[in-house]
Amino acid sequence: MNFFTTKPPWYIPLALFLMAMLVGLLMAYRLWQEMHEDDDPASDHERLSELEEAHFAGELDADELRRVRELLSRSNSPSPPEPLRRRPPLQPESPPSTSTGGNDAPDPGDSPEDFPTSEPPG
Predict the structure, then answer these.
(1) Which of 45, 60, 62, 85 could form a disulfide with 54 if both were Cys (CB 3.0 to 4.6 A apart)?
(2) Model's pTM, two decimal places?
(3) What is the spatial distance between Cα 76 and Cα 91, in angstroms, rounded to a whole number?
């Protein structure tokens, strides 16, 4: 009964831990891969082939298959174009007014409180 009383070698817990990590990472990767899988909707050709198989198996009669083919052909036909919406006419921008003659001097009617000064008030 020395098996239960002897200490196991140091590498056994490490090996078990590494195996558990490997299994956990594989499971996490598969879950991530499944979540990011491209699930494209079935094309009309794929749907029709499944229905044709059902018809050959006797699960779908010829009238139903014909009706489905007509519906799919109608959905593939180009739809009439939407009416074009007219944009409002563009207003040309008016140039800035040049009432000051191009200089940055204040107008004589402006009060001194409208302009900041470098002097402290007081």
Answers:
(1) 60
(2) 0.33
(3) 42
Calculate ∠ Cα 73-76-66, nearest 5°: 15
**Is residue 66's pLDDT more than 80?**
yes
Share of the chain above pLDDT 70, in %: 64
Under DSSP, is residue 92 helix (H, G, I), strand (E, B) or coil?
A: coil
- pLDDT of 48 reads 84
Contact status, residue 40 vs residue 46, Cβ threshold 8 Å: no
72-79 contacts at long range (C-beta below 8 A, 24 or more positions apart): 72/44, 72/47, 72/48, 75/44, 76/44
**How far is it, in rounded angstroms, from Cα 34 to Cα 37?**
5
pLDDT tops 70 at residue 117: no
